[in-house]
Specification:
The protein is of the alpha+beta class. The protein is 29% helix and 24% strand. The chain binds adenosine-5'-diphosphate and magnesium ion (MG).
Length: 634
Amino acid sequence: MPIQILEPTVAAQIAAGEVVERPASIVKELIENAIDAGARRVDIEVRGGGVRELKISDDGCGIPSGEIEIAFERHATSKLRVADDLWSIATLGFRGEALPSIASVSQLTCITRTQDEELGTELRIAGGELQARTPRGCSRGTTFIIRNLFYNVPVRREFLRSEATEASAISAIVTQYALAYPEVRFTMLIEGRLALRTNGTGDLRESLVDMYGLDVARQLLPVESEHGEGFDRVQVRGMVSPPGITRGSRGYLHVFVNRRAIQPRGQIAFVIEEAYHTMLMKGRHPIAVLDIQVHPGAVDVNIHPTKSEVKFRDSPRVMSVLGRSIRDALIGGGEVRPWADAGEPPQPEVAQRRFELRRFSPAEGGEPARQPEPLPEREIELFGEPAPFEREASGFRPTPAIARAPADGDAPQLRAESFLALDVEDTPAPGYAPPPRPPAAPRLPELRIIGQVGLTYIIAESPEGMYMIDQHAAHERVSYERLMRQRGQSDIEQQGLLMPQVVELPPQAQQVLLENRDELATWGFAVEDFGTALQVRAVPAGITVSDLPSALAEIADNLMGRGGSTPADWREAILTTLACHTSIRAGQSLSLAEMRELIVQLEQCEAPRTCPHGRPTMILMSIPQLERQFGRIK
Ligand code: ADP
Ligand code: MG
């Protein structure tokens, strides 16, 4: 074939591949356009997963009738003139690619009117070809209706997921912008049902109430900090959850740069979660809504066609301000023991040691090690002051000190701790429990309960030494195995609620739960549609009402494939979630009888030594170790 310049419609279709991946990408572009047009109100309607029809209307400035056709030309934009402008972008759009791309792969109607015009205009385009242009009366602003996405590119259609999945991707995008622009009133109808509404008062916490419910929104901690001036200015604002409120996925991290939503991946996600260091359990993630404001010239937003990634000119500094401001919010929140501040010299040791856990050898019935997997480890707090240890004599081995000094040097020393590692003999390795033995063999030694420490750990003894048992982890194991048994017999114990509970969740979570109502029923949940919320009439026995919102949020995450996608995965994940939410918590005082009962139940478990997340339920300090500690033996 001779070389030819592509027909404009073909070129547009190819370009569309970059910008328009799925209905949610269209929603993103059109919301951005609405915001750039100064809209105070954006209404979104989704039908057939957004593939059949999307309608996005705003009350922004509108497009002058003389410019509408140009707006649909490639690289036509009112937001950028010369290449240098790229370094001072204050609008969300600038590439001038969205409208032509969308129009080239759908049947599009655009209805728009500016303030000064008496009559608006309606434009119809199909597959990039202008079909009709008619004057029509309409209110100020712009409405886009996009029908039959990819009708002319069937291959692309095949890549789309189910309507429900596409709708939930749209929900996620709208949620992002609603959080970034609390002063804009958003509504979203999915298949005719109100899925999201914010009131547009400009108060972020109020938008969060609309999305995550009053209970969660009330507890979020404000983040507010500003460093530097002019080109060097970095400002971080928003809200983060206290360490006690977590989620099982990163789906609740909303990060914006100059109010542009970006993917909370990589370094940014790391820095946010690192600010919670030691406050979050493995696999748990905070809720965060954070806007990072920098000088427009200090960030490159043009490194990705969907503009969902950015590059900071001075990334280490931005990251350090980000981490520090979250840390400040958390410490200010009063829930956290403050760490050494910048002024103080770093503490050589804190009352925290890292226990190194040993695998069972195959001879002991453990699985052979799968190299090069790292040994699972866990940090626990020891009681009392750390005693100075004699390295060799005590049997303790120091691990390399973990000290994280932020790159720019002026940030506080968040942690400068040296951990001591201890070879705990006979300690179960999390995730490497020995295979189930014949029931006759006792799985746990007989334990005598001594008491409870820190309202969290049960202390017990056996002839081997002292056992420290994490009451929550232990009960989780018991609940997990009970639920697994009941589930295997399709007999999950259900508990009707005298007062049906109304639970508010993010729209996409709510939707996915309603779609999986039957599956949920097999787990003991009876849920119904209750407008913008869910009504719950029955729950699996043991779940407390106050735990219901977070349990359901987590199950929704599991169902949406966050963290694992195959049905077996998410069933397993739901099991783990339920086990967690039906178990006694850390911080709960237990009587001797209750502790005894828990240990009896634990003894009957198949894998009593680890919780369903793979963390240990117990740690043994053997008699020889105790003796070494006290210097009785070397
Ligand atoms: P970009 O946003 O990158 O400029 P688009 O293709 O998204 O490119 O839009 C092209 C132009 O159409 C915009 O620059 C703007 O002038 C106009 N436009 C698009 N959507 C709207 C809207 N909702 N309200 C007013 N003007 C709009
Ligand atoms: Mg745009």
